Automatic annotation (TrEMBL):
Keywords: Hydrolase, Membrane, Protease, Transmembrane, Transmembrane helix. This is Membrane associated serine protease, rhomboid family. It is a multi-pass membrane protein. GO terms for molecular function: serine-type endopeptidase activity. It comes from the Bacteria. The chain crosses the membrane at residues 6-23, 61-80, 100-120, 127-147, 153-172, 184-204, 210-230. The keyword Nucleotidyltransferase does not apply. It comes from Algoriella xinjiangensis. Belongs to the peptidase S54 family. It is found in: Membrane.
Length: 235
């Protein structure tokens, strides 16, 4: 499972090509980035997807693509044959479905993350963002939902179980969205995470029972976020 799949390679290559074009052509970058005013007033809905293939700089691009690479194979294998991958009877004959679900979740998480970001920032017409992090977060949380006890290290500095990281990540993202911390699209990350979790549970419902405690733990920050949003809308 260590080799990079052609589908993962294709997604990474497309991100590199589009981002490189954006690095060297500001008009291209400006036309396809996520911008609330352009989407709501100009009806340029394509930005909801196209912005997910643009990046601010090479460091931003590398971090997202490296994160995608780390979790791609686990997600592809799980969606190819969840029962086999979980219980030791993995079937290579179903890999095409795994590739398709990986690609679907990545794209759906970009769109879902940006739609959620649009809802959160709908009154900020100047708000803009770029990056595949919504899609990458969707893949990350699909992997964590399937394998919550796997260890995350190296990339995340302090080794910990995936479910612990997930709760901390979601909690920080909710706090960061509320406080507007840093130049980070916290709302897109949250939207992407929700897509990843839902896709995994809907595709293979028994995973909810198998990993119920971990999944419910991940839901706590999301429930807190929902309560915060409802309170804001009542003002």
């Amino acid at each position: 499972m260590g080799d990079i799949s052609i589908v993962t390679l294709g997604v990474i290559a497309l991100n590199v090509l589009v981002s490189w074009k954006g690095f060297n052509d500001y008009n291209f970058f400006d036309k396809y980035k996520f911008r609330v005013g352009s989407i709501l007033q100009g009806k340029e809905y394509y930005r909801i997807l196209s912005s997910g293939f643009l990046h601010v700089d090479f460091t931003h691009l590398f971090f997202n693509m490296f994160s995608l690479f780390l979790f791609a194979n686990s997600v592809i294998a799980f969606f190819a044959s969840p029962e086999g991958f979980l219980f030791g009877d993995f079937s290579n004959g179903k890999l095409n479905l795994g590739y398709g679900m990986f690609l679907l979740i990545f794209l759906a998480a970009i769109v879902g993350g940006n739609i959620f970001s649009l809802l959160i920032h709908k009154k900020e017409f100047g708000y803009s963002a770029v990056g595949a992090s919504g899609g990458v977060t969707g893949i990350l949380f699909a992997a964590i939902t399937a394998f919550p006890t796997m260890k995350l290290g190296f990339l995340f500095v302090i080794p910990m179980r995936a479910w612990v990281f997930a709760i901390l990540y979601l909690g920080y993202s909710v706090y960061g969205m509320k406080k507007g911390l840093g130049n980070i699209g916290h709302s897109a990350h949250l939207g992407g995470a929700i897509v990843g979790i839902l896709a995994t549970v809907l595709y293979y419902p028994p995973i909810f029972q198998i990993n119920m405690v971990y999944i419910l733990g991940m839901m706590i920050p999301l429930i807190i976020m929902l309560i915060m949003i409802l309170k804001e809308n009542r003002k």
